[in-house]
Amino acid sequence: MRVRVLLVDDQPLIRAGLRVLIADVPDMEVVGEAGTGAEAVRLTREVVPDVVLMDLRMPGTDGIQATRQIIAAGGPTRVLVLTTFDDDEHVHGALRAGASGFLVKDMALEDILAAIRVVAAGDALIAPGVTRRLIAEFVRRPAAASRSRSLAGITDREREVLTLVGQGLSNAEIAEQLVISVATAKAHVARLFSKLGARDRVHLVIAAYETGLITPPG
Fold it and tell me: What domains are there in the chain, each with its CATH number?
């Protein structure tokens, strides 16, 4: 099955370029385009894409607000941010809103296509240079880091797994560290998704910092 993509950008030339790019690959298709955040929210409800490729700065409802509304609706659609701006506030705002990935527009076209596939498959991806350090710095700020997440209902083993996910370990590396099978590690991660309401590993990393399992640097 092909990945169904909704393009969201207020610049028609950007949308046209992305549409041509996606048209050249057999495993994807563009199912709609939007030039504003409000239109993106409406079209997501109508066509239910697998991935929304979302710009951030748009008139009216911006990309962060649109992402928040799309994710809050609880559907299967995932949001992959593609923007010119990779400063801390834009990264944190997008991840907080529920985006499953964050890319910058100067990335290679093949990398953008690969990121769409990664996010559609249920994983998360952040562009090189937009690192976990930024997430750590964000949740360290008193205004943003409320420590509101609770670990109630999380087992001791799941707490260990969450800590290792927060450190950036893969399922295979977690299995090796805890001397368990990869399948068991994967099952623990899946339960953490459910218990913490996280959509992917990026948001498990945020949870690890927010709950104090990992102390931000500095």
Answer: 3-130 (3.40.50.2300), 137-210 (1.10.10.10)
